[in-house]
């Protein structure tokens, strides 16, 4: 690992560095390369999903049309999940063409779709307007359908066990690029393209490519669009949305102040600073104690149980004493631990824990009264599971 914090790729980045982020060129307390500011690139075209209801009406008014036309367009996109302009028959054809051109540009093109689990898991590789590639995964379970979305193309957090991190950060996604991943999943479910018959996307997890809180503004906009009642948004409950982070403390605090009821998932992966400094390099900036304090404050304010994500890595972080240390840190808190058997990534020295070590880890956490589950590894066959969303991020 390098001994310096990598300077921001651009001083006029698409997203500003989170408050408290190490300044470019600051003396090196941070040993790994962390990229907070996304490289500067051309912006994706404006899309309905980037805008609030009022902003949509204003755009339509600027075009010399009645503002209610914006509501009609929103109803098609968010409520009826229509993506074929020919079906928007309540809009006169010439106007329809104009509005679609202005507010519903083709943002994402699917370049690859891979299915597994008998057609109940569907990974899509998307190409954006500038050739950037990223992925989303739709997973259908008996009681829910969960859409795992990317918030950045690549990631600047450089976690050594994660394939996405190794590819670096290409750029932040826009609000609409995030929302469109969910809308595409909703359309696939509604049209019966996922095994099990027509249905709805019920849950959203920001656990695809990227560190969501490093792209705060766009992610927050996407959460609002996903959860606003239709036709302003997709009308999915805030309680069904999970935003994950490796621990950008000021951004966690900012999210708490939004007073939403989305769940926070904290990718902890180690209970001690010595190991976490290596596994999750952001720990060199915000230590375990600080990040947990921020998580508890979030739990207090939102009333939601924090999900602690812990990838079990053989002989690295799966020792019994670490389970006990984790148990002591978490006991009595509004928390749930998600143990994730590490997904193998090509060429990596990191691998999943032995089953007996995994069982012992669970047993010890439970002995501390900490609720724990071992996450199922849906999508493993198609490299769609966490830490595997690594496809090259540029065509
Ligand atoms: S684990 Fe998450 S935060 Fe870390 S590099 Fe991978 S995508 Fe980024």
Keywords:
about 15% strand, DNA polymerase, domain 1, alpha/beta, disordered C terminus, TIM Barrel, binds iron/sulfur cluster, about 400 residues
Task: List strands and helices in order, with pairings.
Elements: H1 53-62, H2 68-79, H3 93-103, E1 109-116, E2 121-127, E3 133-140, E4 145-148, E5 152-154, H4 163-167, E6 169-172, H5 175-190, E7 203-206, H6 216-227, E8 241-245, H7 249-257, E9 263-267, H8 273-279, H9 288-302, E10 306-312, H10 320-330, E11 335-341, H11 355-367, E12 372-374
Parallel strand pairs: 4-7, 7-8, 8-9, 9-10, 10-11, 11-12
Antiparallel strand pairs: 1-2, 2-3, 3-4, 5-6
Helix pairs in contact: 1-2, 5-6, 7-9, 10-11
Bound molecules: iron/sulfur cluster.
The site of iron/sulfur cluster has 11 residues, from helix 4.
CATH level-3 fold name of the domain at 156-168 and 180-192 and 210-376: TIM Barrel
Helix content: 25-40%
- How far apart, in Å, are the first and last alpha carbons? 28 Å
CATH class of the domain at 156-168 and 180-192 and 210-376: Alpha Beta
Into which percentage range does the β-strand content fall? 15-25%
* CATH level-4 homologous superfamily of the domain at 156-168 and 180-192 and 210-376: Aldolase class I
Instruction: Label the overall shape.
Output: elongated
Q: Rg to the nearest angstrom?
A: 21 Å
CATH architecture of the domain at 156-168 and 180-192 and 210-376: Alpha-Beta Barrel
- Decide which structural class fits the backbone: alpha/beta
Q: Helical element count?
A: 11
- Run of helices and strands: HHHEEEEEHEHEHEHEHHEHEHE
* Low-confidence runs of at least 5 consecutive residues: 1-30, 391-395
Bound molecules: iron/sulfur cluster
* Biggest sheet overview: 10 strands, mixed
- Spatial strand arrangement across the major sheet: 1-2-3-4-7-8-9-10-11-12
State the total count of DSSP E strands. 12
Oligomer: single chain
């Amino acid at each position: 690992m390098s001994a310096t914090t990598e300077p921001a790729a651009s001083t006029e980045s698409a997203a500003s560095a989170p408050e408290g982020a190490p300044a470019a060129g600051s003396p090196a307390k941070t040993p790994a390369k962390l990229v907070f500011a996304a490289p500067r690139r051309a912006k994706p075209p404006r899309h309905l999903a980037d805008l609030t209801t009022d902003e949509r009406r204003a755009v339509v008014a600027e075009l010399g049309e009645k503002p209610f036309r914006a509501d009609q367009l929103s109803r098609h996109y968010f409520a009826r999940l229509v993506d074929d302009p020919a079906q928007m028959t309540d809009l006169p054809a010439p106007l329809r063409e104009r509005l679609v051109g202005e507010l519903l540009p083709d943002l994402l093109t699917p370049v690859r779709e891979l299915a597994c689990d008998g057609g109940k898991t569907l990974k899509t590789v998307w190409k954006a307007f500038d050739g950037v590639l990223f992925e989303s995964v739709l997973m259908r379970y008996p009681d829910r359908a969960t859409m795992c979305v990317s918030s950045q193309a690549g990631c600047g957090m450089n976690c050594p066990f994660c394939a996405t991190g190794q590819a670096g950060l290409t750029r932040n996604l826009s609000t609409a690029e995030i929302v469109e991943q969910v809308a595409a999943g909703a359309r696939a479910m509604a049209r019966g393209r996922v095994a099990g018959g027509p249905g709805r996307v019920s849950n959203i997890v920001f656990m695809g490519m990227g560190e969501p809180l490093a792209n705060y503004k766009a992610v927050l906009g996407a959460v609002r669009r996903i959860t606003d009642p239709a036709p302003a948004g997709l009308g999915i409950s805030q309680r069904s949305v999970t935003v994950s982070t490796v621990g950008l403390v000021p951004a966690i605090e900012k999210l708490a102040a939004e007073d939403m009821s989305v769940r926070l998932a904290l990718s902890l992966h180690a209970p001690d600073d010595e190991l976490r400094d290596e596994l999750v390099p952001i720990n060199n900036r915000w230590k375990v104690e600080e990040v947990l304090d921020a998580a508890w404050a979030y739990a207090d304010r939102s009333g939601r149980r924090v999900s602690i994500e812990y990838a079990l890595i053989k002989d690295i972080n799966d020792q019994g004493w670490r389970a006990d240390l984790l148990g002591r840190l978490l006991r009595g808190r509004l928390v749930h631990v998600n143990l994730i058997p590490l997904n193998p990534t090509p060429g990596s020295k990191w691998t999943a824990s032995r089953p007996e070590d995994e069982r012992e880890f669970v047993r010890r956490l439970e002995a501390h009264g900490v609720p724990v589950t071992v996450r199922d590894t849906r999508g493993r066959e198609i490299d769609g599971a966490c830490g595997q969303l690594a496809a090259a991020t540029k065509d």
